[in-house]
Amino acid sequence: MRYQPDNLNYRPIYTASELQHLHQLAGKLSLAELLVTPRNLEAIGIEFIYSSAQLEGNGYSKADTLALFNMGQTAGGKQYSDAVMLLNLRRSYQYLLAQLGQPPDWPDFVKTTHSLIARDLVLPEEAGVVRRKHITITETDYIPLDNPQQLDAELKYLLHTAAAIHDPFEQALYLHNNLAYLQYFIDCNKRTGRNSHNYALMNAGHFPCIYPQESYRDYINGLITYYESGDYRPSAIYHISAYEQTAARYGTQPDIDIARPPKKQEPQ
């Protein structure tokens, strides 16, 4: 099945009650607490980076990831490209944080994010620029566009449409699914979509979504359904669940350090 340009036309993604629920969850999460402490920024960043990499099949464990970030130590027996993926995701997260509080320049954000995420994973001339080769996508018969001029025009329309979406949760999922659907870049489109999803949330003052890596199958099934039918529903259900889990784990508590849970008091 071939690319359907009408999929990029915006239509409501979540129901009114789902949006109310998501905003209530966001009210339990303190972005200010995250942003005020470098330790917290690093801790949440590691969670987002690690979970995003796991959704791509990265073989590093959490301990491997921490050793890579803290000591520059690669994991024995693991693919070097897995280390590159994690380091690139870290750079792209740091770039995301640097853009907060400014009016979004979506074309620049998406292309710069991709150039950081794809560094040393694609040819240098393919990072951050329109795809010029035919690609196929595993597990689906969906056939993306091939023509670079059409891809440029569709990305422009996609980002113009996204910028006009007022609700950040709607905007976030629109960006996520349609950047993956368009396949503008030669590779790393889903990773770019996940960063764009969280940038939309964080720039609106909301806590980022930490993707539960154990639900890889639900995540992929949601995207495949969208590729083949334009139906957001499975992806919407997945992202609601992911944000519920984020709120349950990081919900605001007084005097809590996100980076380290409070120690239990020993009996006297």
From TrEMBL:
Where is it mostly found?
membrane
Membrane-spanning parts: none
For the ligand (ATP), the binding residues are 187-194
Q: How does it sit in the membrane?
A: Single-pass membrane protein
UniProt key word Nucleotide-binding: yes
In this chain, the site described as Important for autoinhibition of adenylyltransferase activity is at: 56
Coiled-coil segments: none
Kindly state which keywords UniProt assigns to this record, in alphabetical order: ATP-binding, Membrane, Nucleotide-binding, Repeat, TPR repeat, Transmembrane, Transmembrane helix
Query: Where can this protein be found?
Result: Membrane
Q: Where is the Fido domain?
A: 105-241
- What GO annotations for molecular function exist for this entry? ATP binding
Is the ATP-binding keyword given for this protein?
yes
GO cellular component, as recorded: membrane
This protein's superkingdom?
Bacteria
Name of a matching Pfam family:
Fic
Q: What protein name does the entry list?
A: Fic/DOC family
Q: Which organism is it from?
A: Cardiobacterium valvarum
Taxonomic classification: Bacteria, Pseudomonadati, Pseudomonadota, Gammaproteobacteria, Cardiobacteriales
